[in-house]
Amino acid sequence: MGKRKCSPDFSSKEKYNVADTYNQKTDRQDTAGSVYQKEIFKRRSRYILVFSVLTAAFLIVTVLNINTGNVHISLSEIIDILLKKATDTKEYSIIWKIRLPRIMAAILLGGALSVSGFLLQSFFQNPIAGPYVLGISSGAKLVVALTMIVCLQRSITLNSAGMVAAAFVGSLIAMGFVLLISFRVSKMSLLVVCGIMIGYICSAITDFCVTFADDSNIVNLHNWSQGSFSGMTWDNVRMILWIVAVTMVVTFFLAKPIGAYQLGESYARNMGVNVKVLRIA
User: Which residue in 70, 135, 188, 272 is deepest, having the highest Cβ count within 10 Å?
Assistant: First the structure.
C-alpha cells in the first residue's frame, strides 16, 4: 500500500510567527497612512495660513490706498462712500473716480501678470523665465515706440486701446521669434538665452528710434515705459477686465494639457498632447 501524504502541520510557534508578521505589516501600513495624512494636513494648514495672511494683507493695503493721499479720508467715511450713503461730497468723487479705478486696475493686472509668469515658467521649464527675460516687454515697447512716434508726427491721437493693441502686437512678434527658435533648439536653457538676445535687439532698435525722435515723443514714451496706474478710469478697467477674462478662460481650458506638459514633453506626448500646438496657444 502506498503511503498517504499529509499536509505539514504547523506548530503553534510557527503560527504565532506568521500572525505576528502580518500584524507588523498591517502596523507599518497604518503608520505610513497616518504619516501621509499628517503631511497632507500640514500642507493644507500651511496653504490656508499663507492665503489667510495674504488676504489680510491685501485688505489692509487696499484700505490704506483708499485712505491715504493728498486728501485724507477716514475709515467711517470710506464705508459710507462705498455704500453710497454720501454721494454729494468731494471724497466720493476722489474714491469712485480716482482711487477705486486705480486699485481695480492694479488687482486685475497683478493677477494677469502672475498667470503669465506661471505659463512662461511652465512652457520654458525655467524658474527665471519672464516677459523681461524673454524679450516680450522689449518687443512691446519697440512697437509702441514706433506707433507713438508715427502717430504724434502726423498729429494722430493715440488712445489707451491703441497703445494696448500696439503693445500686444509687439509682444506677439517677440514671442513669435522665440517660438521659431524653439523649433530649432532642443534645450530650454538655450532658448531662454535666445529670448534675452531678442530683448536686447528690440531695446537697441527702440533706443535708436528714440535718438532721432522729438522731445515730446521721448517724454511720452518714457512715461509709458515706466508704467503707472495714475489716470485710470472705469473705461480702462472695463477694457482690462475683458482682456484678462478672455485670457483666463483660455488658460482654464488649457489646464489639463499644461499639467501634462509640466511633467515633461515626452509624458505630454504619450498622453496625446500636441506639444507644438500647445506652445503656440
Answer: 135
Q: Cα-flanking dihedrals φ and ψ of residue 206, to 5°?
A: -65, -45
User: Other CB atoms closer than 10 Å to residue 213's CB: what's the count?
Assistant: 19
pLDDT digits (tens, 9 = 90+) for 131-180: 888 888 888 888 888 888 888 777 777 777 788 888 888 888 888 888 78
CB 99 within 8 A of CB 114: no
pTM of the entire predicted model:
0.71
Contact 273, 257 (CB under 8 A): yes
Buried b (16+ CB within 10 A) or exposed e, 215-234: eebbebbeeeeeeeeeebee
pLDDT one-digit tens code per residue, 249-275: 888 888 888 877 777 777 777 777 776
Dig out the grid coordinates for 154 from the structure: 502726423
Question: Helix (H) and strand (E) counts for the chain?
Answer: 12, 0
Task: Tell me how far CA of residue 13 lies from CA of 9, 28, 120, 191, in angstroms.
Answer: 11, 22, 64, 67
Distance CA 121, CA 124 (A): 5
Distance between terminal CA atoms of the chain?
83
